[in-house]
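Quick one: structure for this chain?
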Amino acid sequence: MEEQEKELLIQKIVSKNPIVGWDRDDLAQELRYVFARCEANFDPSKGVKFTTYFIGAAKNKLGKIRKKVYDTPLLLDDDTVDLIESPSPDPRIHDVMDALDQVTSKDIILEYYLGNLSLKEIADAHGLSIQRVHQIIQKGIEDVRVKLTVKG
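Got it. Here's what it folds into:
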């Protein structure tokens, strides 16, 4: 397979399989490694086309990345972690948390950071997808930052 065809195939797979928190270029680089391994291990006598073999391996790799992303706690900057986990938090945090648009947003953030629940556990408890829980947490943290900046 020519380099240009390889790159088009990789970009197509990446565009159809986005992963929250991963840049497209990073995913494409992971798939380039998968491609190289597939080239080294491919056995045409098995009766499978190379592209079919590669696509299966690529989706397998993306599934492993996705699982790792959703099973790993979100990484926050030190200020945000201190703000949420401090034994005597900034008094403004209570006002800001109360002002979050959705009660579920506040609950989910507290469950994640103070309750040490995984994204999957929270998603199951609220009947949401893992990706939606991740989005709610990210949006909630951003709202907290904005409101703290505005309140000064």
